[in-house]
Write a structure and sequence with these properties.
Bound molecules: coenzyme A
Structural class: alpha+beta
Shape: globular
Number of strands: 8
CATH class: Alpha Beta
CATH architecture: 3-Layer(aba) Sandwich
Strand order of the largest sheet: 1-2-3-4-5-6-8-7
Number of helices: 5
Order of helices and strands: EEHHHEEEHEHEE
CATH superfamily: Gcn5-related N-acetyltransferase (GNAT)
């Protein structure tokens, strides 16, 4: 991996070669295909609603993060028709610059192979240089995989009074 742990390549146990890098405007078609390929459950867990396609505006937002306030990292693998996106994680810094909100999703068939961990570590590595003190996210209570993942990554859970179906998960950064 690169010096800031946010870009680089590695190989899974089955020999699949993966690459992690920042998202770019040229990834719009890849990002759309990735979202379209998510299972209903993964899409629901990520977007807390049913999303089948990203609009042009959403695609621009996701692939052209404002570099002062946001970072988006993707994992790619070489496929028959070129590089295929198989995971993405992002954060957006709140206006007070004390906290940021993150989201993460890995393509269903690539889950449970350490890709989410790699993405989250890279995201946090970026934040450490930004002065932001805390990273947080919204997780559906029924999302046991993400809750276990969050605990493993050092996040603490808090109930949200307005919505009993959602938890806020937070990690303080050193
Ligand atoms: C949550 C998510 C990002 C994890 O990504 P991943 O690449 O599968 O995660 P990893 O392989 O790095 O797993 C790390 C740890 O998370 C936990 N975990 C991951 N998937 C799990 C599952 N299906 N069941 C239980 N625990 C799970 C385990 O503790 C795992 O550690 P282990 O492999 O030592 O058991 C992935 O399941 C996902 O994309 N889910 C759908 C979208 C979503 O829920 N996003 C979160 C909303 S912000």
């Amino acid at each position: 991996m690169g010096q800031d742990d946010s870009e680089g390549t590695w190989t899974l146990a089955d020999g699949t070669k993966l690459m992690l890098r920042h998202i770019a405007p040229a990834d719009a078609a890849r990002e759309q295909a990735f979202v379209q390929g998510l299972s209903a459950q993964s899409s629901y867990f990520r977007f807390h609603g049913t999303i089948k396609d990203l609009s042009k505006k959403e695609l621009k937002y996701f692939t052209e993060p404002d570099s002062r306030n946001a970072v988006a990292l993707i994992v790619l693998r070489g496929g028959e028709s070129g590089e295929e996106e198989i995971g993405v994680a992002r954060y957006v810094i709140d206006p007070d610059r004390a906290n940021c909100e993150f989201a993460i999703v890995v393509a269903d068939k690539w889950q449970k192979r350490g890709i989410g961990t790699r993405l989250m570590k890279a995201l946090i590595s970026h934040l450490q240089a930004s002065g932001v003190k805390q990273i947080s996210g919204s997780v559906l209570k029924s999302n046991s995989a993400m809750r276990k993942f969050g605990k493993q990554m050092g996040f603490a859970e808090t109930n949200i009074p307005d919505d009993p179906s959602i938890l806020s998960i937070t990690k303080h950064l050193d």
